[in-house]
Each structure stands twice: as structure tokens, then as C-alpha cells.
Amino acid sequence: xxxxxxxxxxxxxxxxxxxxxxxxxxxxxxxxxxxxxxxxxxxxxxxxxxxxxxxxxxxxxxxxxxxxxxxxxxxxxxxx
Length: 80
Prior knowledge:
Blueprint (H helix, E strand, L loop, with lengths): L5 H72 L3
């Protein structure tokens, strides 16, 4: 195989650099998209955890009210 001339080496290097730059650019774009998706999932998860916590608090509050009402009724009937 004959040796490459300086011009050929420079042209080959320039092609390689362009390819590397395009590849890095694509990787950065994919990383940005991936980060956005992760942030969206984290936000969704926080919302679901918040809703679940809120539902439990409402249920506990309702249970307390019902328990209090039952205690009053039992006292009125003389069972408390």
C-alpha cells in the first residue's frame, strides 16, 4: 500500500474531525432528551406520591370524624 500524501492525511483528518463533532453533537442532544424525560418522570412520581399522601390524610381525617361520631352516639346510649 503506497504511503499517503500530506494532503490526503489532512483531508482524512478533517473528515474524521467532522465525524467526531457530529457524533458528539448527537450524543449531547440525546443526553438532553434523556435528562428531560427523567425530569418529567421525577415530576410525575412526585405528583403521584403527593396525591397518595393527600388521599391517606383525607382518609385519616374522615376516619377520625366517624370515630368521634360513633363515640358520641355510644355515650348517648350509655355504652361509652
